[in-house]
Amino acid sequence: MNSKVFLGPMSKNIVDTVIEYSNSFKLPFTFIPSRRQVEYDGGYVNNWTTKEFVNYVKTKGKYISVERDHGGPGQGTNMDDGIDSFKEDCKYMDVIHIDPWKKYQDYESGLNETIKALNLCYNENSNLFFEIATEEGIRRFEVDELETFILDLQKRLKPEIYKRIKYFVVQCGTGLLEASNIGHYEKNRLKKMVELCKKYGFISKEHNGDWVSIDLMREKFELGLDCINVAPELGQIETKSILNAINKLEDKEKQNELFEAFFKICLNSNKWVKWVNKDFNPEENKEKLINICGHYVFSYPEFEKIKNQLPNSNKQIKHNLIKKIREYHSLMDSYYKVLITTSGIGRRLGDLTTYTNKSLIKVGDKLAICHIIEKYNKNVEFVITLGYYGNLVKDFLELAYPTHTFTFVWVDKYKGEGSSLAYSLLHAKSYLQCPFMFNCCDSLTTNNIDIPNENTLFVNGIKSGTLYSTVTTVDDNISKLNNKGEINFDFIYTGISFIKNYTDYWTILDDNYNNNNNNIEIGDVDIIQKMLKKHTFKYKILSEWYDCGNLTELSERIKKLYKCNYTVLDKNNESICFFDDYVIKFFSNEEMCKNRIKRGNSLYPLTPKILGSRDNFIKMKLVDGQLMSNIKTHGEILKLLNWSKDNLWISTGIINGNFKEICRKFYVDKTMKRVKMMLDKLSDYTIINNINIGTIYDLFNKLDFNSLFTDECSHFHGDFILDNIIKTKESYKLLDWRQDFGGELYNGDKYYDIAKLRHNIIFNHTNVSNNLFTKEIKENEVIIDLKCNYTLISQLKDFDNFVLDNKLDLKKIKILTALIWLNMSPLHEYPLNEFLFYFGKYNLFLEL
């Protein structure tokens, strides 16, 4: 039991959140339930009895201890002798605070009752520890009187009982009233009381640390205070979170109804009375009254009815509580933050960072930075430097990890003269006045990262001294950190480190940058090299480490390790990131993203539910089901077509003469533009598969483009391929819908969807990924061929029958399919682009 901060279990939410945080960091906390909160016959916190509460905490919390706060006569709901409560406490608690002073203000009476209670509890359980004395809101003690109290206890207690006294309450000017701390801090008094505790071997402990700034708490600890109690403030955080949830309701009538109901419950509880002065007017201070005593009524059935109408409030409560608990954690030696620098341009990655930040490149099913974030405790604070495409990094992280805490630091110079890793680091200095982990945004590992408690570099055994800084070691320590190019070394430095001596780190960085501010290569290595002259650095070996900022490594080693479980055709200007129950799609084009959102909401529930968005991102619910492209069952295509006819390709009821012009732009103008793009790159060979079919423009001259146009509008998907359709247990879900049809958001041509599906039956992702297409050019002739999926091709008959049965134009669909291949060709790299052009041209010839 070495807790520094002792917390009141004001609600089950608070208990659960503290336990989760404690477990995640292996961090000791002590709960201090008062007799009103938790008691042998039930308290106001979740109606827990003493036994139920302690068993709950001990079962779930590996690093939590429990102390009875203010145990003794008159400390419960009535002025009893406290004996029944003590006896139950002795069975389950780790520590009992012996506090008779509320009922017995006279020194001799209080002393006698303290001795009586200590004897009683020790006889019940000799393994207990005790806390003695009380806060000044109950009875003020002077230093001399406290020393007399200690000496009297020494004289009158058996030595074995006296030795079980561990904590001693000190007083330095704290007091609570109306949800604030009204005490007047007495620094000298604190010093004297702390010295008194040290003199007699007690752990000094202050009560009523609520609404005291973390800086003041830190000052008190630096003066020697060992522990501090906090209770009502946590309850108020939860209460305020609930009030905020009520205030965010769009229905103003419902908002007022829930607020008034909350106020009425609190008012009638009378739990607020002891916390206010006599002049307090409840009707004029409704919100203040709720804030004072809201936590007392969380277990009331009437309050549960309110809470049930605020379905997302628990997430915000937890987030706000963790923020406060993290502040308390910052007072402890084990506290740290995680720094990830994403401000650079990622020049080693070439075209991959044309549209995005290097930390957002695709690695497996996720983006690179996800593999870093998820290596660390989800409750730690991340400090992220932002520069190149910094808005994308910020937006993505906020969408992807809404319960995480990020501090974003903007860096103005991230390329060219004056920019450097050191410059970026300096911008984070004020946010990292504590030990921290540093993790370059392109440094990935599949090993666990255990947070050390001393300066440490994480290293790897690959022999690439020309590419990376390296280390030389002696025993468990690093003796030298070498610049790139070193031949003789033991390990390479991975760009992951733990900095314990952060003050010296920043001092050296300031000096280095000021002396070399135009050196774009200056970074953390330069700092650590100088720190090694004064400080010891340990090292930890990462057996599995990868540099995703290295294009060669990214394409070879990393893609083999971080495999994709979802079939996605990667693009530099679009990507998709998969999580357990949602996905996030990135678009470099903001207008496209905005229109995708509008169309997604319009098509819902045929599409996944959109959970959130930013300028370049859409967050959607992950759909449970099977991609249609993976289903190898005959008849599935026909089922899909029939479902789409009934649910998707429904007429909008609009007959629009202008829609034919939209079709012209979409089918003709776009095709001509794409074809020209290809003709700038290749020759328009006229002989394909031993048939002279003429030039592409010869074919266009034979094509009656007007036959492709319609004035009948329908709902549409826009990229209706099997990889964009999931078969669920009940139905289908449509993915990756097109943002518009020739500029139209809600009116489209169902023929385009049907042609897209025909294209995908013949030519799909499997053909591409397995290189099942061939293109040969010999003496001004082209030979093309394609190996198709038998299960899909065998369903073309079902496809054609569906078209004919529904009186659709099969020839038009086949022509559109050929145009689709022509349009796709300039969007792909060689040799796929050339294959698609000739394949589309050849199939167009076959239909004319």
TrEMBL record:
InterPro entries noted in UniProt: Aldolase_TIM (IPR013785), Kinase-like_dom_sf (IPR011009), Nucleotide-diphossugar_trans (IPR029044)
Name under which the protein is recorded: MobA-like NTP transferase domain-containing protein
